[in-house]
Fold this sequence. Notes:
The complex is a heterodimer of chains A (about 160) and B (about 775).
Chain A: E1 3-6, E2 9-12, H1 21-28, E3 47-50, E4 53-56, H2 62-65, E5 69-71, H3 83-90, H4 100-111, H5 119-126, H6 136-158
Chain B: H1 3-15, H2 25-31, E1 44-47, H3 49-52, E2 57-60, E3 63-65, E4 71-75, H4 84-96, E5 103-107, H5 129-156, E6 164-166, E7 169-172, E8 177-180, H6 181-187, H7 196-201, E9 242-247, E10 256-261, E11 271-276, E12 288-292, H8 295-304, E13 306-310, H9 319-331, E14 337-342, H10 345-351, E15 354-362, E16 374-380, E17 383-388, H11 393-404, E18 411-415, H12 431-441, E19 445-448, H13 451-456, E20 464-472, E21 478-487, E22 526-533, H14 535-540, H15 551-568, H16 573-580, H17 590-605, E23 616-623, E24 633-642, E25 648-658, H18 665-684, E26 690-691, E27 694-695, E28 713-719, H19 731-748, E29 754-755, H20 759-765
Parallel strand pairs in B: 4-5, 9-19, 15-29, 17-18, 21-22, 25-28
Antiparallel strand pairs in B: 2-3, 3-4, 6-7, 7-8, 9-12, 10-13, 11-12, 14-22, 15-20, 16-17, 16-19, 20-21, 23-24, 24-25, 26-27
Amino acid sequence: MPNLNINGRNMSVEAANDTPLLWVIREQLQMTGTKFGCGAGLCGACTIHVNGEAVRSCQTPVSEAVGKKITTIEGLSPKSDHPLQKAWIIEQVPQCGYCQSGQIMQAASLLSKNSNPTKEEVVAHMDGNLCRCMTYSRIQKAILRAAADMRTASSAGTERRPT
Amino acid sequence: MNTHVKKIAQEKLDREPADLSRRSFLVGTAAAGLALGYSAVPGLLGADQALAAPAKFDPSVWYSIGPDGLVTVTCGKADMGQHIASTMAQIVSEELGSSWKDMRVQLASNDPKFNDPVLGAQITGGSWSTMMNFDAMSRAGAAGRIALTQAAATIMGVPAGELVVRDSTVSHPKSKKSMSFADIVKSGKITRTFTPDELKAIKLKTPDQYTMVGVSVPQLDIPPKSNGTAKYGIDVNVPGMVYGAVVTPPVRFGATVKSVDDSAAKKVPGFIKAVTLDDKTGSTTGWVVAVANTYANAKKAAGALKIAYDNGPNAKLSSESLLDEAKRLQKLDDSGQFFVKDGDTAAAFGTAAKVLEAEYTTSINIHAPLEPMNATAEFKGDILNIYSGNQFATRSGAIAAGAAGIDPKYVVMHQMWLGGGFGRRLDADMMVPAVQAAKAVGKPVKVIYSRENDMTMDYSRPLTFQKVKAGLDGDGKLIALNHDVVSAWPTQRWGIPDFLSPSVDKKGPLDAFTVNGADFFYSVPNHNVRAIKNEMAHNATPSGQLRSVAPGWTFWAVESMIDELAHAAGKDPAEYRISLLDGKGKNDGGAQRLRSTLLAAMGMAGYGTVKLPKGEGMGVACVSSQERATASWTACVAHVAVSPSGEVKVKKLTVATDVGMQVHPDNIRAQVEGAALWGLSLAMYEKATLKDGGIEQTNFDSYTPLRMSQVPEVAVNVIANGEKPTGVGEPAVTVIAPALGNAIFNACGARIRALPITAEAVKANMKA
């Protein structure tokens, strides 16, 4: 009976060691924001973070996640106001929306390491995430917007303004 | 979720059998017993007004206004990312006078009262929704405004004509009195009802009075799609539910199960049962569902089943055999039926100075929406509840009933957000395993296709073969065109006569969803279009409607051939098109709009004015929509660079589209861009093949839709000229492939006639 730390909470789940983390999250924990798309690590719809790294939960056995910090779209930001989520709304990114949890989680792992990515770096980081509605250009715009917002927020927080 | 709808559907089912007849929405309201202002019944719940408070004002089946002032619009269309629910709310809001922040949406059940007011069924496709619902939603909104205003006038003691409605508030400027919609609903003084004739007589706003239509309001479904809370069919959780994984046979269609050995599956923990489908609806052949307590266990059990098949009559067929059969059929003089027969092409060819013939093909293509097909079935009393995102609730409910062996009136379809549709969810095959598994195990079952099931059992875009023969007179003018289209017939498969069209030569109905677009807006005095059914392909690869349907292949042939003719006549291909769009006869109006749209795209792209380096070229194409009557006018200039090895780099796609009226400009741009990229993906990156009766591509490693790194610059120009609003989700899909093919020709002299375009084909066809 594996114990998981997911979105900051410890939860025990009942699953065989080789069960893909995706199904444990979706069915047992009833967090359905993480999506099933291909079951083969080819589309990115199931992307979550394990210790801050973006991983495909359909390819991650539950046993591998034990003792690690798991974050899903539900845990990315307590009020759904991560800069990426805000940018997703401002840029009106989603169409069907099915891939977007995975897109946001994949993008978040980029911005946590690189707050000023070039367009090329965004494309390279996001190319494993399919969007069948082809919202790619809006995804790109939203990531660059969120990065800019994060830089502004962090400089506003650390710089002392002259009085 | 959808509780309001569920209750109504249930009540309605209790009272009367579902019928699919067309009825106007207020008649529907009356039938459901939702009289206007029922919240006002005094003493409804004794003296306790607090309990009576939640009563609502339901001006039509399409929306209700709560005592909190929230306006909840029920969307009868499937929302697969085109934001149609939000669009319906926007149209209602315009006439109702509500504030956008008060608008909410919910998705309709399959109750016939939510049928499309024009189509008389619940079906979403064809880029029809906005066009066909704009008037009904506008009138629904206006009726609500009138009823609210009259109630407010009574309460305030002022003439209704002096009241102003704005931002969910009715105000009387003279006395400075005002009431919110919430106050009016709570007052219970709304008494006004409308007959269908009264509704028809309402004077709607003119476009110059619009304050909501034409504004890019925030889409109501986007916040829940940005935080994981939007619920799709795959997310449904019904108490006591178990899971089904599908095992599909090696052939696409025609297999039967000879035996199932579940001895190994029985060792999988949580395994419940292997259910062999007995599908009398004809949706599936040779399918088995492994049912278990979790989906992971169901998958394991499915993998452990040993199934012996008879692979049936199609087991030796391949893409090549389907294409060979198509060519054989096309050569026969008596195959097919005529969709267009204008003038006398045979005579005209006799007088032609030049005759060109060419063959165009497209491959099998797979919808592959990112949410794999799924459905949850739950038998509850007499009712079969189905939870699934579906584009054709009217038919899918009947298929579910057929799979269960019950009357369709006992099926309640609970609509969900669709994780992509693109026409795939017009079909109902997923109902069958869910229903029969639920019946077999006596519990609700959620069936989820694996990606491999989803790809190999897609109701795909059919393989097509088209032969075009064209005759030019001495001046290079197009005087005769024979166009034969050979394909599986996706719509005939549904078995609904209303979806078929009479043939011009009276040889029985034909499937116009295989030839639409071939009845273009160019003036050609002698013009034949023949629809030929490829029975072999129809049986081996049951086909479906894929985003834009027939125009996805007919315009590939037509717009490539028009280019070939222009070059043969020594004319610029864009100018050649403009001369054919003369607006004569039946083409009056449409041809002129298409001409203007083409000119707009040319201007935006710098066609004919920009000097391009060697190896680069621009190509044009212009198209209408699925039907002449539902046309959006769309043109593209594609700019490509072709390397000596035949590699094509798409530098820019410039798309102009005339949509009549923009309800939501930003959404139109999103749809047109998505459609254009779909067109690019189909033109260059997506190909499925049949071998030994089975689809060879199983996942996104072998079937490869466009990814972010392959996105070129896309420029979109939307023309809104005040005509009625038209659809935007599809036309831009169809214009890209021919524009690319024509650009490639201009870049390197290689004429490509097969989709998808490959570097090998480009290289092989280059002029030495």
